Amino acid sequence: MNIPAELKYTKDHEWVRVEGDIATVGITDFAQSELGDIVYIEIETEGETLDAEEVFGSIEAVKTVSDLFMPISGEIIEFNADLESSPETVNTDPFGNGWMVKIKLSDSSQINSLMDAEAYGSLIG
């Protein structure tokens, strides 16, 4: 299972890459493998400011539909539009081209409440 050390993680199996005051968010390798073949991603919150833990979208796989939760508070400034036509990219490249949204951080100190790779590895066993 791939768990890049430079990223932060949530209990909801999302990863966060912070660059300045912008955070890129996607789901982990573990999450995509548990979901199975991803067929649709719905994000209708672009331009909205949401709090941590709020639902920002959903991901649909052959087996199930799952909510996507904000890892940190902020404004969703970009959705990965490539996922509209190629949602399976999340299965093949979850930490690269399979990213989902970019968030302008409201409070960068919230990053400290996220898990590092070691803690996330312990969570998923």
Layout: helices, strands, pairs:
Elements: E1 8-9, E2 14-19, E3 22-27, H1 29-35, E4 38-42, E5 49-50, E6 55-61, E7 65-69, E8 74-79, H2 82-85, H3 89-92, E9 101-105, H4 117-124
Which features would summarize this protein structure in a list?
125 residues; alpha+beta; OB fold (Dihydrolipoamide Acetyltransferase, E2P); six-stranded antiparallel sheet; three-stranded antiparallel sheet; 4 helices; 9 strands; 18% helix; 35% strand; globular
CATH architecture: Beta Barrel
| Strand order in the largest sheet | 1-2-3-9-8-5
N-to-C terminal Cα separation, in Å? 10 Å
How many separate domains make up the residues? 1
Largest sheet data: 6 strands, antiparallel
Describe this structure as you would to a colleague.
With 125 residues, this protein is α+β, with helices and mostly antiparallel strands. The chain has a single domain, classed as OB fold (Dihydrolipoamide Acetyltransferase, E2P) (Beta Barrel). The chain has 4 helices and 9 strands; from the N terminus they run βββαβββββααβα. The strands form 2 sheets. The protein has a 6-stranded antiparallel beta sheet. The longest helix has 8 residues. The protein is globular. It starts with 7 loop residues before the first strand and ends with a helix.
